[in-house]
Design goal:
Blueprint lengths: L18 E3 L5 E3 L3 E6 L1 H4 L11 E5 L33 E5 L8 E2 L10 E5 L16 E2 L1 H9 L4 E4 L9
Parallel strand pairs: 5-7, 6-8, 7-9
Antiparallel strand pairs: 1-2, 3-4
């Protein structure tokens, strides 16, 4: 029987995001911001004190939590996320267990029938969610990425902050 697996994260204020190194060597950290836009108390006067509601303000970058990069992310002339149909990302999948790797280990992959599939790499990195260790992660080697492309993989997922090295 077909089974769907939800790999998303709840969006929370201050959840882990990504970091970018500035020209001066300092880091800028990106995250989600969740806060009231209009509180219950602020809305009551609009309804003569007989009703109230809250509207939440949500701001985040597209690279926070579980997300899908579109080709546009790297190539401005390619498709953006709104142009990707659901049947392109809801696919038969394969999980490749690569747990036990250390931060900054490059991982290779070969010898799997992966054509047309979603391939998810389980590094076990969820154990580092919301800790400093989350930002030093194992990644797929250049050879692994070439193998996946050549194998006809339709989608690749990892449980780390990025699929390749940010070093």
């Amino acid at each position: 029987p077909m089974r769907f697996v939800d790999v998303s994260h709840a969006i929370e204020d201050g959840m882990p995001g990504f970091r970018m190194k500035n020209a001066d060597g300092t880091l800028t950290e990106y995250t989600a911001h969740v806060r009231p836009f209009l509180t219950h108390e602020q809305s009551r006067p609009f309804y003569q004190g007989k009703a109230e509601f809250e509207i939440t303000d949500l701001a985040l970058q597209t690279s926070v939590g579980t997300y899908i990069d579109s080709p546009y992310h790297r190539h401005r002339a390619k498709r953006d996320i709104g142009q990707i149909a659901l049947d392109e990302v809801i696919l038969p999948g394969v999980v490749i267990d690569v747990r036990g790797r250390a931060a900054w280990d490059a991982v290779d992959v070969t010898a799997h029938d992966l054509s047309g599939k979603a391939v998810l790499f389980n590094f076990g990195w969820d154990q580092h969610w919301a800790t400093e260790a989350y930002y030093g992660y194992p990644f797929l080697s250049r050879a692994a990425l070439h193998f996946l492309i050549g194998a006809g993989v339709r989608l690749v997922g990892v449980d780390t902050i990025n699929i390749d090295s940010s070093r």
